[in-house]
Specification:
The chain is built from 26 helices and 19 strands. It is α/β, with parallel strands linked by helices. The protein is globular. The N and C termini lie far apart (82 Å). It is an enzyme of class 3 (hydrolase).
Length: 634
């Protein structure tokens, strides 16, 4: 057996482990059932990857996140480690071959969703595999008190029965005490090794500021700390708007959301990762699996849905150990907005029944059929067809996804079907007078036989690559060919794929998960309340509040959060005469707004207001037409 440190150095080019990693890895190698609670950025994946590489056989990794599975598999493959992921959309014959490769092909990692464990073929092949470890990522999903409960995680117990000799390591980044106990119970751990590192981050200052003008405060924060930053916003439209605002202020920013193409995501991500731009403005779709150590500031312009998600997103700042800031900007409208965004859009059991029934009808899935069938899905068209409110409908689909009725994967692409409707001879006569289209038409003809006889599905990416032209130019050419009555063209945008996990059963399907739906709605209400309590509590240190939520007791004040700093200022109030002298000195050089003055003088906002009021009363200063302050004698 290779020594863990040698594996670390060989594949990851590190010469030492992070705190706790080595002890966790040794426990896993020794065959212990192991529970690992490490905060975001703590290096959880190495805790199962290195033990799996140290032992003969294959490690089965259960994960609910397709994007993260693909990223980890790609990263392992790039290191020369054989890994594969069983994602949705794989045909039976492909699945058969892939599972055979896991048995006979010296693969070290098999990533799969918990839903896959329901398939008999998968179960049969796992019995034949030399499984050296079972790793359960995002383990909080197994607990109904966890923030992302997925009932399919209960299937992991079946995996333990299939391979009783393999030990299990469960990993999560955030879990309250009751969730930790639930995970250990559900995974049937006996005398497990439990590793829980404190969530304490001595270098991370948690800040909550009440701001009427969030844009201005955001600009100020990013100018004061001109280093790599993330700004989280509520929706896709806001990512573009805030990035544009920052660019207008000469702050280099890009944006990220689930609606971008893969090429756009890669381009924007690369620019930010390589520090070609300072700020990534993103929805909460961004960040999972990203380990950028030099992020200085994480700003939430809108309230997160829970302490769990906030803690993970905020924790992306300061992973290099340097002082960093996690800032929430709030105002009076935020409480109503967060309730509208996360509570008023919770779907009822009846709505979920309706959405499921209509979804089956939309794809013409018959009763008792549809298991593991995958369809391209135009979400907006679906909502329009059945007049569903889009947010409620989307949340209903997410419930169906989490409860393993369907898999909903975001898959933005163009779905194109083409048929040539003129003869071969007439087509080549046409090309004689339209030479620009020659290479495109010939590329399509060589790639798709039978395109003269049938409406044929065409892959735009492959055709544009073969013809060496941009995709938008290809689409334009196809539209021209349609206009000239050379082809029939169906060009439809799809924004997702839906895979039905189980046969259609309508009422029976939804009644089975109805108690879970109600319990999860109640949990969401409690999480939103905890988030609102956090931002409103200005008397207890922010770090203490967060750590108490996760069950840590007797935590000392951090001395660097917004609450601690305010209390420090109260203990040592500024000398009013000193503030007055500084203010007059600054105004000697010209007019300034109250914001500009606050940035230049070391005092609180209330102290500045007191001094300004005093100077106005004594007519030492006046207010200009531009709402700035100036000395009366100037």
């Amino acid at each position: 057996m290779q020594h863990p440190i040698n594996i670390l150095e060989r594949y990851w080019n590190f010469t030492s482990f992070r705190p706790e990693q080595e002890a966790i890895i040794n426990a896993v190698i020794e065959g212990e059932d192991t529970f690992v609670l490490l905060p975001t950025g703590g290096g959880k994946s190495l805790c199962f990857q290195i033990p799996a590489l140290a032992k003969d056989g294959i490690c089965i990794v259960i994960s609910p996140l397709i994007a993260l599975m693909k990223d980890q598999v790609q990263a392992l493959n790039e290191k020369g480690i054989k890994a594969m992921a069983l994602t949705s959309g794989i045909s039976y014959s492909q699945l058969d071959t892939m599972l055979d490769n896991c048995i006979y092909g010296n693969y070290k990692f098999l990533y799969l969703s918990p839903e896959r464990l329901q398939q008999e073929l998968v179960q049969d092949r796992i019995r034949l595999m030399n499984v050296n470890l079972i790793a359960v990522d995002e383990a909080h999903c197994i607990s109904q008190w966890g923030s992302d409960f997925r009932p399919a995680y209960k299937n992991i117990e079946l995996l333990r029965r299939l391979r009783p000799s393999a030990n299990v390591v469960a990993l999560t980044a955030s879990a309250k005490p009751e969730v930790v106990n639930d995970i250990i119970k559900e995974l049937d751990f006996i005398q497990p090794k439990i590793f829980k590192t404190s969530f304490w981050r001595s270098n991370l200052a948690y800040m909550v500021f009440h701001e009427n003008d969030k844009h201005y405060r955001l600009e100020t924060i990013l100018r004061k700390n001109p280093a790599s930053s993330i700004v989280y916003v509520r929706n896709r439209k806001a990512t573009i708007e805030i990035a544009s605002f920052l660019k207008s202020k000469n702050i280099n920013a890009t944006f990220y959301h689930g609606g971008l193409t893969n090429d756009e995501k890669d381009k924007n991500m690369t620019a930010w990762l390589q520090n070609q731009c300072q700020v990534m403005v993103a929805t909460n779709a961004f960040g999972m699996g990203i380990d950028k150590p030099d992020v200085k500031t994480v700003v939430h312009l809108n309230l997160p849905e829970s302490i769990e998600s906030y803690f993970q997103e905020a924790g992306r700042a300061g992973r290099n150990g340097d002082k960093a800031f996690a800032v929430i900007l709030k105002n009076k409208s935020d409480e109503e907005l967060v309730k509208n965004q996360f509570l008023s859009v919770l779907p009822t059991v009846d709505l979920i029944k309706q959405v499921y029934r209509k979804l089956c009808n939309y794809f013409q899935v018959s009763y008792g059929e549809g298991e593991y069938e995958t369809f391209d899905f135009d979400f907006n068209s679906f909502c329009k067809t059945y007049q569903f409110p889009s947010i409620l409908c989307y949340n209903a689909l997410l419930f169906l996804d989490r409860n393993s009725v369907i898999t909903l994967s975001k898959q933005f692409k163009n779905k194109v079907t083409v048929q040539f409707i003129i003869s071969n001879h007439a087509l080549f006569n046409y090309l004689d007078t339209h030479e620009d289209y020659n290479i495109i038409v010939k590329s399509i003809l060589r790639m798709y036989g039978g395109i003269f006889d049938n409406l044929t599905k065409v892959d735009l990416k492959k055709v544009s690559k073969k013809a060496s032209i941009p995709e938008h130019q290809l689409i334009h050419t196809l539209q021209q060919l349609e206009g000239d009555e050379i082809i029939t063209l169906n060009l439809a945008k799809t924004d997702a794929q839906v895979t039905f996990i189980e046969p259609r059963e309508d009422e029976i399907t939804i009644n089975r998960i109805a108690p879970i739906i109600k319990q999860q709605n109640k949990l969401k209400q409690n999480q939103v309340k905890a988030m609102l309590d956090y931002i409103e509590n200005d008397s207890v240190c922010k770090s203490v509040q967060l750590l108490s939520y996760f069950g840590e007791k007797n935590v000392e004040d951090c001395k660097i959060c917004s609450v601690c700093i305010q209390q420090k200022k109260k203990e040592v109030p500024q000398d009013i005469n000193s503030v007055k002298r500084n203010l007059i000195e600054i105004l000697e050089s010209g007019d300034y707004s109250s914001r500009d003055l606050l940035e230049q003088i070391n005092c609180s906002e209330n102290e500045l207001k007191t001094v300004l009021k005093l100077l106005l009363e004594h007519q030492i200063i006046t207010i200009t037409s531009k709402n700035t302050y100036k000395l009366s004698h100037l």
